Amino acid sequence: MREIEKERQMIQSIAQKSVQKIVAPKAAEIDTRGLIPQEIVESFGRQGLLSILLPEEYGGTEGDVTSFCLVIEEVAKTSGACSLLILAQGVGSLPLILKGSVLQKERYFRAISEKNTLAAFSLNESRLGYDGETIRTRAERKGDSYVLNGSKAFITHGGVPGLFCVIALTHPSEGVKETSAFLVEGDSPGLTLVRREEKVGMRGTFTADLILENCEIPAANLLGQEGGGWSIVLNTLTVAKTAVGAQAVGIAQGALDYASHYAQERVQFGKPIASFQAIQFMIADMATQVEAARALVYEAAARIDDGAGATERFSAMAKLYASESAIRVTTDAVQILGGYGYMRDYPVERMMRDAKVTQVFEGPNPVHRWLLAQDLLRG
Q1: How many structural domains are present in the chain?
Q2: Is this structure's pTM higher than 0.85?
Q3: Is 42 a residue of the active site?
Q4: 99 plus 197 within the same structural domain
């Protein structure tokens, strides 16, 4: 077995043990309370699950995108919210990995790996189109500082004063061509965290808006060069879409596992419902969808890791297909449990609620269908 495969299996095993020990006993409570306990955040941090993509020299795990997806899938089988904690942390850290200077990496990677500082990718705005042409947040250079004004919406980890990668326009007349990326610390004057959203699913994570009012940051907090922000956005979203696909696979697998076990235990008409052909066919279709989605997700991850072509195309396909499969599989799991499936005493209704957002965030699925069609028809 190649060394890289051993490393991936080791990281996945760490995640699996962590889920069994600290996540599974609290998964229902996390959803009910709408809060991931700090002990889980700290445990994930100690085990390197909050710094999977970070270089080893800065205290990270130095895993690749495939490892990142394996961990997200493993955690998502039990708790969508806890998997989103890891997913958002990786995506929030990625711009710094891609374009951070040595000094930026030394300062902020240490904060992430040693202090469990939560990172957030801050692109979305309330009226932002997926192409970025409607970004309204501005960054104006003033001497040795930049002054940011605007707002960001639907930011995972937005309610936590951690580290934000904020996408803003440095020369508004040029549009998306002059988009830049900035590192903004959560306690920066002029940055306000507001309006925690009450969500249908993924309830344990904070999702909030950011308001930037004359928020002054050092010019040294520019990531890369002025005007280089949109390439950071595209590369970050390619990984993010693949990771969402892994999350959707994990949620679907968790629902399939629970429904399969239930069907073998639940007795109707004197026999387990798993003996009825209608249930057997449902489970067969569910399993097929999960495996097909998983294959597509890890093909996309492998292409990113290997530097192969068509990474954006495959990441979009992975996110699109896996999220659609997760909705079908979790809905069927609820159906197999019957009335109990609709009750909060059983996890499949939570899995169904968690699965829904995978169709929505990191670009809604209709947009990905349109983009894929444009890409495919050009060729």
Answers
A1: 3
A2: yes
A3: no
A4: no
